[in-house]
Design brief:
The protein is an alpha/beta fold. 47% of the residues lie in helices and 11% in strands. The protein has 15 helices and eight strands. A six-stranded parallel sheet has the order 1-8-5-4-2-3, sandwiched between helices. Strands 6-7 form a two-stranded antiparallel sheet. β6 and β7 form a beta hairpin. α7 runs antiparallel to α8 and α10 packs across α11. It is globular, with a radius of gyration of 20 Å.
Length: 387
């Protein structure tokens, strides 16, 4: 039986072609807006021009340079501007990194303490308010456009931590699939893997008879598998882009995770790889998830067998064999996308593992997973399986 839950998704989604033009209807009247963005691709693909036109008449400050793994130091520069200029609305124009950075800016600008990094250290528990946030999404991956979570990196200490705050859950998100036409293939692949693993982490645990959540999860994974081929063959396939964009949003907007056990160890282990070695987030998940599933196979056996049958079409009565084939299919899927599933592809060997495990301990990753039984010693073994 699945757990009691409260589900409140306040984000208004505006989806489809040409929807950026509706921005002025979504931003509060007379708001002083800070528009945040990343490295400048939004200028090359014309998205920022559309945003500027839609915000004509608003007082706007633009802040760029948010990193692919949003940096604490960079975000704090924006916080300073928000306070000095009395910014009262934040508009993130970009993918998950820009949105995550903007969420941190939102909370840090209203934080009353001396050290805003405590927002990360307490995983958002110390948040007391936030500047309202809106989103124009250009890279489907993280689901950050509709959820309360964010991940921030402190580069000088190689720390990458997450937090949750309802204060910065976006009040609206504009999703125009055409904005993703110009994405580099690597970013498209990263996004597909990130969304797929988000689903896996809420689905591949143990059965609680949550049939709706299970079917939603399986549908999202099947869609990502099918449309990944189409979008890589034709990057301007609108239907494929639209299905992938909506899949990524639905993968992590609290719907499929409502009332069910969850296992976020893949993400925690992947974050350490990104913080220490700069490997793309999506690529770290492709490395960790298959080995994690192999290590925890018996704990996840029922759901792995279900996953094998319903998602990969495995016709096998023996649950253990079915689980093995499902894990192999998952690894093959990542590899066929162009994502290596072993650390050796990045010229990393077992020598790097002690430092990774030390970071897991420092970040207090004990009693993790859906059964609260995975500890740094287990994760050390999983890292070794990833080599």
């Amino acid at each position: 039986m699945f757990n009691n839950f409260i589900l409140h998704m306040r984000t208004r989604v505006v989806f489809g072609k040409g929807t950026i033009s509706q921005l002025s209807k979504e931003v509060p009247e007379n708001a002083k807006v800070m528009v945040t963005y990343g490295g400048g691709s939004v200028f090359k693909n014309g998205v920022m021009e559309q945003v500027r036109n839609a915000l004509d008449g608003f007082e706007v400050i633009e802040f760029g340079g948010i990193e692919p793994n949003p940096g604490y130091e960079t975000c704090m520069k924006a916080v300073k501007i928000c306070k000095e200029e009395n910014v009262d609305f934040l508009l993130a124009v970009g993918g998950g990194s820009v949105i995550d950075g903007t969420k941190f800016i939102s909370n840090a600008a209203k934080y009353g303490g001396d050290n805003p990094w405590n927002i990360l250290l307490t995983r958002g528990k110390c948040c007391t308010g936030g500047i309202p946030v809106g989103v124009v999404l250009t890279l489907p991956a993280t689901g950050s456009e509709m959820n309360a979570g964010a991940v921030i990196t402190k580069y000088d200490t190689q720390d990458k931590l997450d937090f949750d705050s309802e204060y910065s859950r976006p009040i609206f998100a504009i999703l125009d699939p055409e904005t993703t036409y110009s994405l580099p293939q690597r970013q498209t692949i990263n996004g597909i893997i990130d969304a797929f693993v988000h689903v896996a982490e809420q689905y591949l645990t143990y059965p609680v008879n949550a049939k709706i959540q299970d079917r939603f999860a399986e549908g999202i994974m099947l869609t990502l598998i099918e449309e990944s081929k189409n979008v890589l063959e034709n990057p301007q396939n609108y239907e494929a882009r639209a299905n992938i964009m909506w899949s990524a949003t639905m993968a992590l907007n609290n719907l499929i995770g409502a009332g069910v056990p969850q296992d976020w160890v893949s993400h925690f282990m992947g974050h350490e790889l990104t913080a220490m070695f700069g490997i793309d987030h999506g690529m770290t998940l492709a490395i960790v998830l298959p080995s994690l599933l192999e290590y925890t196979k018996m704990d996840k056996l029922e759901k792995l067998a279900q996953y094998g049958k319903r998602v990969w079409g495995v016709d096998e009565k023996d649950k253990s064999v079915c689980a093995d084939k499902a894990i192999k299919a998952t690894r093959n899927f990542f590899e066929q996308l162009g994502a290596p599933t072993h650390l050796s592809a990045y010229e990393l060997d077992e020598k790097v593992i002690p430092a990774l495990v030390d970071k897991l301990k420092e970040h207090n990753f004990y009693n993790m997973g859906e059964r609260k039984k995975l500890n740094p010693k287990d994760m050390e073994k999983i890292y070794k399986m990833c080599i």
